[in-house]
């Protein structure tokens, strides 16, 4: 079995208290977990719809994945980064399309709080201290999350479509082509997107393109025209229009705010 902590770097842990968010697009810099201690917040993304998290719920955060967030709450967060983040979160039983653990086991609080104590107790650079607690967190969550996933014979359509987009370098032009890659009819894919994500298949494809665009805008200095092409848009003008319609500003202005 692969090492679940390979290429994974622990970044930070802390408690966010009485932080009020206004509705808007959020692009998390790091992956990790939010464990709700008090209050509630509403989180929404096209790939999983809208959910309200309350005390005792846990959210797995995937870096660079667009979502909307609002509410007043207090939560314990854990941040990690590196190429191993997505494999680690998936090994725990989460996917970008299903990042929730409602009513998370209470024992998840203790290794997270021990990490918090270690941050302020001179153990930040102790590799075994943090690795042991990350492993314990993964063990608890996998035991809770995986049974239902293991009974699933194939990945959700949302995950399959994302893989198709990545494998084709976002050149997949529309629903018909995406369905052909999955060996299903376009109508089957349309119904699956509505059922799994609550949006049309074409809207989900657009969201995937814009997620990639935001990542390139923030992490590179590529010209807008290049990013438009890299995300599967035939023209820079069409890309700018689509971006502004859904994000609320132009790609250039978004880049200025998030660099």
From TrEMBL:
GO terms for molecular function: DNA-binding transcription factor activity; sequence-specific DNA binding. Residues 159-257 form the HTH araC/xylS-type domain. Keywords: DNA-binding, Transcription, Transcription regulation. InterPro entries: Homeodomain-like_sf, HTH-like, HTH_AraC, HTH_AraC-typ_CS, Tscrpt_reg_AraC-type_HTH. Signal peptide: none annotated. The keyword DNA-binding applies. PANTHER family: ARAC-FAMILY TRANSCRIPTIONAL REGULATOR (PTHR43280), HTH-TYPE TRANSCRIPTIONAL REGULATOR EXSA (PTHR43280:SF2). This is AraC family transcriptional regulator. It comes from Kiritimatiella glycovorans.
């Amino acid at each position: 079995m692969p090492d679940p902590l390979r290429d994974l770097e622990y970044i930070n842990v802390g408690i966010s208290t009485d932080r009020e968010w206004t509705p808007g697009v959020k692009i998390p810099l790091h992956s990790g977990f939010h464990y709700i201690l008090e209050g509630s917040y509403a989180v929404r993304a096209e790939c999983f719809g809208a959910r309200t998290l309350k005390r005792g719920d846990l959210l797995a955060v995937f870096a660079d994945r667009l979502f909307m967030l609002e509410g007043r709450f207090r939560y314990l967060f854990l941040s990690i980064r590196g190429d191993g983040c997505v494999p680690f979160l998936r090994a725990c039983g989460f996917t970008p399309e299903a990042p929730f653990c409602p009513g998370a086991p209470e024992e998840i609080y203790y290794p997270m709080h021990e990490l918090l104590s270690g941050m302020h107790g001179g153990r930040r650079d102790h590799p075994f201290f943090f690795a042991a607690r990350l492993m314990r967190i993964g063990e608890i969550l996998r035991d809770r999350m995986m049974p239902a996933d293991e009974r699933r014979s194939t990945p959700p359509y949302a995950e399959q479509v994302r893989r198709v987009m990545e494998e084709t370098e976002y050149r997949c032009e529309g629903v018909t082509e995406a369905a052909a890659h999955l060996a299903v009819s376009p109508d089957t894919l349309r119904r699956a997107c509505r059922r799994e994500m609550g949006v049309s298949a074409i809207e989900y494809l657009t969201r995937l393109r814009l997620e990639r665009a935001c990542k390139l805008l923030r992490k590179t200095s590529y010209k807008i025209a290049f990013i438009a092409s890299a995300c599967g848009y035939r023209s820079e003008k069409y890309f700018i229009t689509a971006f502004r319609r859904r994000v609320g500003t132009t790609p250039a202005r978004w880049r200025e705010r998030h660099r």
